[in-house]
Amino acid sequence: MKAVIAGLILSLVLAAHLATTYGLSQAALFVVGLAAGVILYHAAFGFTWAWREFVTTRRGAGLRAQMVMLGVTVAVFLPLLAAGQLGDQPLRGAIAPLGRLIQTPSPPRHRPGGSPSAATAPARAAGAPP
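^ that's the sequence the OP posted. Answer follows.
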């Protein structure tokens, strides 16, 4: 419990420092990042664990936490993006065309010698372990 209280105090001090030094927007970004980090921590650091836990044991606490986090994020950012600005700061989504590597699959990679096992064939012939 002492660690939680110390973390909260340190977070408040850091948010206040960010607000006075860099402005309220940086402090708000810090708070949003901190909240997302706490949610992901309680969801075991990632999306796959919560889905695996739900499928194997039917416990959906982590999955519900992720859905709440996604819902809150959408509920906050959708109106901001629709308004187009927050104060004097313009807001827009990051929209860009797909890169060439995403549009076309990369060719298969081959090792020198034509096959994946050609490079190890001489060593195997000499009695070395594979």
